[in-house]
Amino acid sequence: MIKSYTSLSKRTTHIEGDQHRLVGQILDNRLRVLSLNHVSPRQWLYQVEPPSVGKTRRALKVLGDPLSREPGSYYRLKTSYHRLKQITSPYLERSYECGLLHDHTPYIVVEWEPHQSLYEYLRLQKTPLSWRDSQQLFIGICQGLNALHESGVAHGDLRPQHVLLRHPPRSPVLIDGCINAAFGSPPVPGLDHSGSFWAPERKSLSTASPSADLYSLGALMYFCLNGTPPFNILTSQFNDQDSEQLASPLRCIESAHDDLEPPESMGDEPQEIKSLIAQLLAKSPRQRPTTQEVLKCLAPNGVDPLLVTTVSTSPKALNIDPSEASKKISSESNEETNDKTDDLLELKPPLDTYNAPVWLISALCSIGALIGLTLAKW
Length: 378
Description:
The protein is an alpha+beta fold. It is built from eleven helices and nine strands. The protein has helices at residues 73-85, 118-125, 131-150, 177-183, 210-226, 240-244, 249-259, 271-280, 291-298, 322-347, 358-377, and strands at residues 6-7, 26-27, 31-39, 43-49, 58-63, 95-100, 106-111, 163-167, 170-174. Helix 3 packs antiparallel against helix 5 (210-226) and helix 3 (131-150) packs antiparallel against helix 9 (291-298).
């Protein structure tokens, strides 16, 4: 199975002591480093919080070797940070800060997501996802990719380990887009088991493209609905003769992405989704659909799952034409006004009861005036 980050509890004997140098320190008199949570070949992930108690915790990602030693690494990371900071999407992790440690190692501060990844969720489930459970998941992932692509940024390394779930199995959040946009994916394919989700053209290109992200999306959808990537050791025709010829399983999987046609998905999704996955896994980038076309296929009604409330009384949610709804509301308001007017008329006594002879009214007025003059003389 694929695993990107390694838990600290499982590799306590293999982690160098230098990686723990930040634990317990306060960076720039603002961020207290609480713990080292994960280690990958390209970054160290720490949990930090402001010195005052009760503030929101953040995630500190420190570049590891050899990225931190590359010329201009801080400039590249800062440029990528400013580009992604302008993107506001609930499906992308938020970036808050970019800087240098005391030893000039670049770092970024992002939101802390204490959620399990899509890979961990599927591993615990031990069964593929159904189409009913995965539809909103795919819509959210595609929404995140669409926000990146509209800003001219490609994620570069989309796979289950880089998708966190706020409310499993939905509400996805794409992570590590900033580092991938700055440095590209690992220089060695499969260094962190990413080769199973890479597009064929990634071997010859140093940077990712939106079409490569869509290929990874197709591989990820296949993985969720079938339990395995479209090309694994079994489907890549790897055998003992290849191992004798020093051909690793990784190389066979890469060759399968180049030469073999992807197998048909065996999940319970509709036929149009099976066709969509096949189009996303096309060898040529020009034959793959765009994120907008994928969203139209995944959500024909154009409904964002985060914007759907439990109870909605809007005319659109009730399948009512807005113009008809406005006419209906205005007619109901007019009827209500007429009813209130009728009620007032019923409560008001007839006008005839207030009619009296003119001579009686004038006589009463005269008597009142005389009484007033008499009192004034006294």
